[in-house]
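If your schedule permits, I should be very grateful for your opinion on a structural question. I would ask you to consider whether the tokens describe a fold that such a sequence might reasonably adopt. Thank you for your consideration; the sequence and its tokens are set out here.
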Amino acid sequence: MTINEKIRAAEVRVIDSEGNQLGVMKTERALELAYDKGMDLVEMNAGGPTPVCKIMDYGKYRFDRSKKEKESRKKQVTIEVKEIKFSCRIGQHDFDTKISHANRFLTAGNKVKMTIMFSGREMNNTQRGVELMAKIAEAVSEVGTVDKKPNLEGRFMTMFVVPKKK
């Protein structure tokens, strides 16, 4: 936004602080009006043959705008993606521990990326990985739903699970 003397146009369409249109006038005249009221002339829309300018307190405008931005940042919800890695040869206790971690992440509102790592000759039998993914999906079904089905990429099979809607 351009303010006061930095406005380069010869004529501008002026709107006063209450929102009433004052019409098209020379920039110098508009600046005089703004200074008489103790305010600034702010170029709101530079497009077109005559830019639209508004008479306002620019400092207060900037303060209010930054306040709104801070408020909107507070309301934003950031969703993290947590990753849990499994192996085809995982034991039952390790499986239960990792599922409890996944349930905790899902109840906190995070997405969970389930990854199965294949090593060596396990690549010849990826069906075990598909079965393990089905078992994982069933184990987290109370708090999460499968967002992206299991997908084999190189030596890794991945599946995304998102928290259930409340």
Summary: The first strand starts at residue 2 and ends at 3. Strands lie at 2-3, 11-15, 21-26, 40-45, 52-56, 81-87, 111-117, 144-153, 156-163. The mean pLDDT is 89.
